[in-house]
Design goal:
mainly alpha
Length: 147
């Protein structure tokens, strides 16, 4: 048997809630055990999906940069976007590397959005809406399921 981290964490959370919490004498101790169990459950979910989520978000931001670069005036931000398009943000699948790439791409996304919001026209407005759509989708990807 080779235990998987998410299963181990969920098992630990279950033991804390079902076995240990009822044995505790004070509501304070029971609440603390409940909090630890909840955190273990969240960690289990995040462990299992983190690499896929970061890779999906990184790909989505690069695709957004590809579309936005066509509407951008020449300049430093457009040049940076073209570099991001040429790079492979998912080359290293270690979660720490994917997260670092995700953080870097998000900083670029903020710069792109700040510029897009100053540009006239329907194309700039459409790109801005795409950015907001991706930010909403990113929030959805991070949703934690309880129960």
């Amino acid at each position: 048997m080779r235990p998987q981290p998410p299963q181990v964490m969920m098992g630990m959370a279950g033991v804390l809630m079902l076995k240990l919490a009822p044995e505790l004498q004070t509501p304070f101790a029971q609440q603390n055990i409940g909090s630890v169990a909840g955190i273990l459950s969240m960690l289990a979910q995040e462990y299992d999906r983190a690499a896929a989520r970061f890779a999906e978000e990184n790909d989505a931001m690069v695709a957004l940069f590809r579309r936005a670069s066509r509407a951008m005036p020449t300049g430093a931000i457009r040049s940076k976007m073209l570099q991001e398009i040429a790079a492979n943000p998912n080359a290293d699948l270690h979660v720490s590397k994917l997260q670092a790439e995700n953080d870097r791409l998000r900083r670029m996304l903020v710069e792109v959005q700040a510029l897009v919001e100053t540009l006239p026209g329907e194309e700039a407005a459409a790109i801005n809406e795409e950015i907001w759509d991706e930010l909403r989708e990113s929030t959805r990807r991070r949703h934690i399921m309880f129960g």
